[in-house]
Specification:
The complex is a heterodimer. Helix content of chain A is 64%, strand content 5%. By secondary structure, chain A is mainly alpha-helical. Chain A folds into three domains: 46 residues; 136 residues, no CATH class; 218 residues, MetI-like fold (Orthogonal Bundle). Chain A starts with 12 loop residues before the first helix and ends with a helix. By secondary structure, chain B is an all-alpha fold. Chain B has two domains: 153 residues, no CATH class; 235 residues, MetI-like fold (Orthogonal Bundle). Helices cover 77% and strands 1% of the residues of chain B. Chain B contains 16 helices and two strands. In chain B, helix 11 crosses helix 13 and helix 13 runs antiparallel to helix 16. Chain B is flat, with a radius of gyration of 32 Å.
């Protein structure tokens, strides 16, 4: 920069430096700005991601209900055999009575499609609970159809041409009628939290997937925690220095970076095809996720064990403990907070994982809530994947809602890990 | 007896042996436990391990081998006219028999022979379970008795117990090797079967990919083409776009955070960046498919460009966002590892901060940064959910980021989800793709880890 040539006019070095100073300061500023921009960009992406999820998904926690006056005609519902009654007929009749001017098959079908197919089941449940209602006229709040729900939440613009929207002019007229009579309202969507999957958005819920995730993570935790901690103890405290141990360590480091989908192939070829374990079961999912999270748990447990000062172990050895006793009674308890933090982070990673589970058949459409680790089930991220594929506008909302729930669980787990670290971490 | 009840019984018996052993140890020395070699509880564990371990091992071996052996006996006893129909038919029959024994519905109305076979299966199973129960109980009581009788003050119970624990710890550590082995075997064997059907150079260098093999011989396109080049180019294109986003943003963020930012800014921005790493990939996939792709398409229309709704650009962009924290945290580590003396030297010569970073720190940290980028590339190549949700299915051989392309991982998922027979070239192709993916990511990881380690040693 300032190496002067001898044959140029005698200038002092400081002049040369000063001459370039402005340019250099400008480039310094540019460089800093670039750094700030990058961080702003990354955080902006995060904000955009979360913003788009929340703005799409907050509506999923509410569901539109409509109030119908129905006559529980004893001719349609046999008091002796409550499971066989024509409940949907009762609902349809209630709708027809509200709008007596509706005629023609197509019109009527449009009218019936205002309320959810699950309305009949709800009515049935109510009648089974109180058989005395038969023969009476009652008012009942039933869930609206998903298109009505989307319209009532204001996501469909009524000014666009009729053929471009899923909800037609006459349906809008009927909905307006409901609104005038205060017969339509949004309520907290309990179905979303306590139902299994369904083809109808208004009766689809995440509970089945949450339970599936729970079982899968339970299997993962029960297998990966003991095995991971045991491996870490061996490698950190007992392993001799030889080629074989090096090979194990290389393996662990590489497994941590193997694409998750490869673990799915392993699960399919070995657990399902070779050992004949059932497809779609959370047990197999747990096995696959165990293999995936083991490296994480081993690496973090080793770091935690390493951070315990050697003097603790030496003191235990000095008063006559065996190496095994020194580790299990003194080193391991002190390393436990670190190990648990690593385990929780590993579990959080496993909770968000979906690609390997697609391979072992956990993508099936499963309505029932799984009752055990061998039942067919799905998990929350896979449920999100399945719903994201559905064309209905209402499923878009529910997908985002399910994502918010998933992120909520992840935030919770990470918070526990952070608190654990803050509370119990000791600086030696 | 049921296997699970048997298992619980064995566990209970073995814990009973623990108490008996402990009791006996203290009794033998009349409560003077200082004259024992080990603490009384070690004698308890000694008895428990001896009584429980052999029986549990037997149980495990039995559970693994029993179904295969019984099935083979049943097949051997099947009438001639069923076994003569060939392997695949026998497999179907065996499936039916299994279903019948489990009380499930079978695909077809079972014939008398199959019902008889199922009954035979059931009775064999009952006999085998009875034998198992008798043997394992004999083992528990026999070994338990011997071990309890062996207890005397000079017995080195602690050494034995600790040795067993050590072996257990060692076996746990070996699971890492087992799972690598499992991965290699599962992808390799299926791939070898695939390459017997489709020559390996057709697969690696073929230009068309249409894995739909037809049912009938004479159908159009019945051959099915398994040229994977379009998949490789698609994967590389999307990964390249991702790296174009992640490397500059991640690297500059790392530089700013480690060299310029105050502790306060660093304390806020760093965790926020890590949040990006913690978001599940399925969420990124949803974001890419339902927010970014329509946005790009809209922007393209207003600019007069035709951007496919499943464009490589959308998937790559979002994948890049996902990888930012990986690049930034790895680069952060290596930048912080550059010795302070090198910075001080540059400042002493009058360099500005950015000059120091560009001309001193960056070259010094370059090997580590390259290692980090290689890890990020391997992550991008293997990423699945984002591309499954946002990239296309059609295998286009193109380098245009506005077109839809497909990737290796997308094809693995599409070929293997849903029901299909396990022996078709279509299914096996997924394993061949998996093998390619595994080998490439493994190479990248090995190189990257080696580079990073070497770099670290340089400054330690």
């Amino acid at each position: 920069m300032n190496n002067q040539q001898a044959d140029t006019a005698p200038r002092r070095a400081i002049d040369v430096i000063n001459a370039g100073m402005d340019r250099r300061k400008r480039s310094e500023k540019r460089f800093q700005l670039l750094g700030k921009l990058s961080i702003a960009l990354a955080i902006g992406f995060l904000a955009m991601l979360l913003g788009s999820i929340v703005s799409k998904g907050y509506g999923a926690f509410q569901q539109t209900y409509v109030k119908l006056d129905v006559h529980l005609d004893a001719a349609k519902i046999d008091a002796e055999n409550l499971n066989k009654g024509n409940y949907s007929g009762v609902i349809k009749e209630g709708l027809r009575n509200m709008f007596p001017d509706v005629s023609g098959r197509r019109e009527k079908r449009k009218l019936y499609s205002l309320v959810s197919q699950s309305a009949a089941y709800q009515l049935q449940a109510k009648v089974i609970e109180e058989p005395g209602l038969i023969g009476q006229a009652i008012s009942i709040w039933v869930p609206a159809d998903d298109e009505v729900d989307v319209f009532f939440k204001g996501h469909i613009n009524r000014d666009i041409a009729e053929e471009d929207r899923r909800i037609k002019d006459n349906q809008i007229r009927w909905i307006d009628h409901f609104i005038e009579q205060n017969r339509i309202e949004k309520r907290f969507n309990t179905t979303f939290f306590n139902a299994g999957d369904s083809r109808n958005p208004e009766s689809a819920g995440i509970w089945g997937a949450v339970v599936g995730s729970f079982y899968t993570l339970l299997v993962t935790l029960l297998l990966s925690f003991p095995v991971g901690v045991a491996s870490a103890i061996y490698l950190e405290e007992f392993a001799p220095k030889n080629k074989f141990i090096d090979f194990i360590e290389v393996n662990i480091n590489n497994l941590a970076a193997v694409p998750s989908i490869i673990f799915g192939l392993l699960g399919l070829a070995i657990f399902i095809n070779f050992f004949g374990l059932p497809r779609s079961a959370s047990f197999v999912g747990g096995l696959v996720l165990t293999l995936m999270t083991l490296p994480t748990i081993i690496i973090s447990s080793r770091a935690a064990l390493k951070s315990v000062p050697p003097s603790i172990k030496q003191a235990a050895l000095g008063v006559g403990a065996s190496p095994m006793q020194a580790i299990f009674y003194h080193v391991l308890p002190l390393a436990m907070p670190g190990i648990l933090t690593g385990t929780i982070l590993g579990m959080a990673q496993a909770l968000g994982e979906s690609a390997p589970l697609l391979m072992i058949g956990m993508v099936a459409f499963i309505v029932d809530i799984p009752a055990g680790i061998f039942d067919p089930s799905t998990v929350l991220p896979v449920q999100i994947f399945l719903w994201a594929d559905s064309p209905e506008r209402a499923f878009l909302e529910r997908t985002s809602g399910a994502i918010m729930v998933l992120l909520g669980f992840l935030v919770l787990m990470n918070m526990v890990a952070v608190i654990l670290r803050k509370q119990f971490e000791r600086r030696w | 007896m049921q296997i699970d009840i048997l298992f619980i019984t064995l566990m209970l018996l073995s814990s009973a042996a623990f108490f008996i052993g402990r009791q006996r140890a203290s009794k033998i020395v009349q409560g003077q436990i200082q004259s024992l070699h080990s603490l009384p509880s070690f004698y308890g564990f000694f008895a428990a391990i001896w009584s429980g371990l052999p029986a549990i091992l037997l149980l495990a071996a039995w559970v693994v081998f029993e179904p295969a052996i019984i099935t083979n006996i049943v097949i051997a006893n099947l009438p001639e006219h069923i076994t003569s129909l060939g392997q695949s038919h026998v497999n179907l029959v065996v499936n039916d028999i299994h279903n019948l024994t489990l009380g499930n519905l079978t695909a077809t109305e079972p014939s008398a022979e199959i019902i008889a076979a199922a009954d035979q299966y059931k009775s064999l199973q009952a006999t085998s379970h009875m034998l198992l129960t008798i043997f394992s109980l004999l083992l528990v009581f026999g070994f338990g008795l011997v071990s309890v009788r062996k207890i005397h003050p000079q017995l080195r119970a602690r050494n034995v117990v600790e040795q067993v624990i050590k072996v257990f710890l060692f076996l746990c550590a070996c699971i890492a090797i087992l799972s690598t082995l499992g991965i290699v075997m599962s992808v390799l064997f299926e791939s070898i079967r695939f390459f017997k059907m489709i020559p390996i150079d057709d697969f690696l260098f073929g230009l068309t990919w249409s894995p739909q093999t037809a049912m009938r011989e004479d159908q159009v396109g019945s051959s099915g083409a398994f040229g994977a080049i379009p998949l490789f180019t698609g994967t590389l294109l999307i990964s390249f776009i991702a790296m174009m986003v992640a490397v500059p943003v991640g690297l500059m963020s790392a530089i700013y955070l480690s060299e310029y930012a105050s502790t306060k800014v660093r304390g806020i921005a760093k965790p926020l960046l890590e949040v990006l790493a913690g978001i599940p990939t399925v969420v990124y996939g949803f974001f890419a498919a339902l927010t970014v792709a329509p946005l790009l398409r809209g922007a393209g229309i207003s600019l007069g460009l035709d951007i496919a709704s499943e464009s490589a650009l959308a998937a790559g962009l979002v994948m890049g966002i996902m990888i930012i924290p990986l690049v930034s945290s790895l680069s952060d580590d290596v930048i912080n590892a550059v010795p302070q003396a090198m910075r001080d030297g540059a400042y002493g010569l009058g360099a500005t901060k950015s000059e120091t970073i560009r001309k001193v720190i960056f070259p010094a940290a370059l090997p580590g940064i390259v290692g980090g980028i290689l890890l990020a590339v391997s992550r991008a190549l293997g990423e699945t959910m984002i591309v499954v949700m946002a990239a296309g299915l059609a295998a286009n051989l193109t380098a245009n980021p506005l077109d839809a392309v497909t990737t290796v991982t997308v094809q693995i998922v599409t070929l293997l989800t849903g029901d299909q027979e396990f022996d078709s070239a279509k299914t096996l192709a997924a394993f061949a793709l998996g093998l390619v993916l595994f080998v490439i990511t493994l190479l990248l990881n090995v190189i990257a880890l080696r580079v990073v380690r070497k770099y670290r040693e340089q400054y330690e």
